[in-house]
Design goal:
Elements: H1 4-59, E1 76-82, H2 92-103, E2 110-115, H3 117-125, E3 129-134, H4 143-158, E4 162-174, E5 177-186, H5 208-283
Parallel strand pairs: 1-2, 1-4, 2-3
Antiparallel strand pairs: 4-5
Amino acid sequence: MASLQDIRHRIKSVKSTRQITSAMNMVATSRLRRAKEAANANRPYAEKVVQVVQEIAANAGADFRHPLLETHETGKRLILVMTADKGLAGAYTSNACKAAHALVEDKANTQLIVTGRRGVTHFRNRGFNVVQSYVGMSDRPDFETARRIAMELIKRFETGDVKEVYMVYTRFISAISCEAQSVQLLPFKHEGNGDTGIHTEYIYEPDAATVLGFLLPQYLYTTVYASMLQSAASEVSSRMNAMSNATDNADDLMHKLDLYYNKVRQAGITTELTEIVGGAAALE
């Protein structure tokens, strides 16, 4: 049985840990509102850009050619993976890494561009070819960084060394729910409008092909930035939930340790009383 001093030290240690997790929970909660608002405010714009580009692609004609539409028969697969710079965010980074692993057919023919220190460490320690990394902005993304990442994807695809580009990010659903997802970015694929035949009418100047050629890179910038905002909100919410659970677990552990401390203390008092009574009886 542990001594009273050992139990007191453990209670003190758990109490200190609880103070840290509680403070981190409050910080994450205060930052979640801003991250969630940024992600939700950007979502309609990103969805509209995708819709417009798809509509223009449908009107550009079958003869339209663009480097981002070209299909390469040979080349490597490039995967953009968005992870966290810091830990203590539950399964946020591990889920994104698992989704990226599912896209890897051959490690030798796979290149990775990773955002977040945790993801960079994860893949480099496992022998993956991380050709580019971006750190220090996983929970505070900005459009300029998203544009640089998208330009890097475009440059590597246009050289012909990369035959397809995928992106793995975490979609923010609610404060208690997020989901790692993967999407193919390049080559750009026109999804059409199904069998409805319904098209939005646009006036093009000078023509649909020229407008589409200008919009395709912009579409990629917008998609990457929207995914970064979604991932940032997911990271903050995951950290908030992880710290909340850790604080609750610390409360439960402290309660159990208090009961155990009182039990050991009472057992010690009982032993001392028994010794006193036994000693008094021996003197009679």
